[in-house]
Amino acid sequence: MKRNMIIGIDLGGTNLKLALMDRSFRIKARQVFSTAGFSEKEDLVTGIAVSVNRIIDDNGLRKAHIMGVGLGLPGPVNSKSGLVHFFPNIPGWKNVRLKAVLQRKIRLPVFIDNDANLMALAEHTIGAARGMQNALCITLGTGVGGGLVCEGSIYRGSTYAAGEIGHVPVNEKGPKCNCGGIACLEAYIGNKRIVKAAKAAFRKDISLEELSARAQKGDVKAIRVWQMVGRYLGIALSGAVNLLNLDVIVIGGGVANAGSSLFDEVRAVVRKRAMSVQARHVKIAKARLGNDAGLLGAAILVQSHIGRRREKNQAGFFR
Amino acid sequence: MKRNMIIGIDLGGTNLKLALMDRSFRIKARQVFSTAGFSEKEDLVTGIAVSVNRIIDDNGLRKAHIMGVGLGLPGPVNSKSGLVHFFPNIPGWKNVRLKAVLQRKIRLPVFIDNDANLMALAEHTIGAARGMQNALCITLGTGVGGGLVCEGSIYRGSTYAAGEIGHVPVNEKGPKCNCGGIACLEAYIGNKRIVKAAKAAFRKDISLEELSARAQKGDVKAIRVWQMVGRYLGIALSGAVNLLNLDVIVIGGGVANAGSSLFDEVRAVVRKRAMSVQARHVKIAKARLGNDAGLLGAAILVQSHIGRRREKNQAGFFR
């Protein structure tokens, strides 16, 4: 029997998304579970195991068809040892050997990583940063996440916490950030801040989707909000570009749908403020993989660990 | 005859420094030439070749004793192809194949790199960042230079221009920088800015050496100037630490002699503003190799290219 399928999982603050993919990362089936009921760590681990079994059963497969399970997590993770350090937005997780625990429970090889790293891995392998040596992939959401590719590989840093472009200061003084820092990029352009700026501009509540739609139709007030976002993003990216001399910066997350009023401003600020050699070289591109980047990255992580080994040794795991 | 000696060269804006070293990077002889007379590019190239020949002759050696020549340069350099892109402070150099030109002229293997990268290479190989996987090495001088070590190797970036920590913005608005940017770190703490701040504090001209000496003796006004420097440096480093999750930041250059009033402030700002996982892990250390870092790095560059090859094949180069 051939192990030809991979399960990718994206664990967020509210949802657990799963996808069943083939070895070319085509999504064959997907499922979403709410994590609202899982207040205890053990419940969440059991929930992951149950949902893995269910997506296999529901698609008429058996474990023997599955190469492995990749899992993207919302916090710093030692992807080598499989240890979860903690989750900023899910209490109760501290130094959990999640890879080992899950492998025992579901009897399949498990690989885990930070969700921003998996987004970067996906965009680098099959998305907007494909073929690039050095890339920064950013997700604009409630927080501002980032994953780095250096010399063709995900760069995770000394304690698996690299890539935090959202926590680069853009001012000496400024708003307090959730991370404890001051005037971090995220404190200016996290989703809540954008919604607040939109409310101030329109004197009523307005969703990010509507703000994007209005900007695309040429509404000057909406465009100005996105330009504000682009300006702060451009300042932080000017520093990253000068420091890292990147090939490409990939911007994803719902906010990336704002279109040219955001991207034009980011590009203009980087062109103006970054050094000419670095600024001329770097491309600033929209993410290609959308909301599936995390799932795809999780599957790519499995493939990158098992794919080659499997070709050498068809014995596989856990048979 | 054994090729047991290496020549390291550090080309600055005003001086050409040479050192003759053994394979353990012990400096056996040194020479300094002014570059003031070399207004033409060809004159400077000839000057380098003449000075290499002289340091060999003056020490009773022959070319057959020399493994190679390493050259640190004040600007972006493609260290692989040996191409000088340009020098910000020396006009007339644009896309010069310096490695090839020099090799033909002096008949020895030549390796070139940016001076900040060589400082980082030296500190990483035999200095304050020894044994570390991820490091940022900073030189505080007229400009603020930087070299990055990622996963144990010098990280040069996509067009050999990475490491420019001096051109990370620390404010949205602020002083114009020499690089064309706005509110870059260098625009706040380049040597001239520190001298200016010292003059404002003491109402008279005061050298950086004296400013350091006074701070070390407890002079409050001098300490405040260094704290200002440390504050801006700490802000830029908080961003670098969050983005790169470094093991160590090494600070060198004359200004690093200011002592604890500078270093304590940098550490305090990073501890306060960077994310806890990254801030707790990173060490902030004074450079160990002082003014010789560039020369030592140039020799290490030669050793890293030739050392192993030579062990395999005693035939060598240019014999």
Would you kindly provide a brief summary of this structure?
Chain A is of the alpha/beta class. In chain A, 41% of the residues lie in helices and 24% in strands.
Structure commentary:
The structure is a homodimer of 319-residue chains. Chain A is 41% helix and 24% strand. By secondary structure, chain A is an alpha/beta fold. Chain A folds into two domains: 5-118 and 292-312, Nucleotidyltransferase, domain 5 (2-Layer Sandwich); 132-287, ATPase, nucleotide binding domain (Nucleotidyltransferase, domain 5). In chain A, the strands form three sheets. Chain A has a five-stranded mixed β-sheet with strand order 3-2-1-4-8, with helices on both faces. In chain A, strands 11-10-9-12-13 form a five-stranded mixed β-sheet, sandwiched between helices. In chain A, strands 5-6-7 form a three-stranded antiparallel β-sheet, with no helix packed on it. The longest helix of chain A has 25 residues, at 220-244. Chains A and B meet through strand 10, helix 7 and helix 9 of A and strand 10, helix 7 and helix 9 of B.
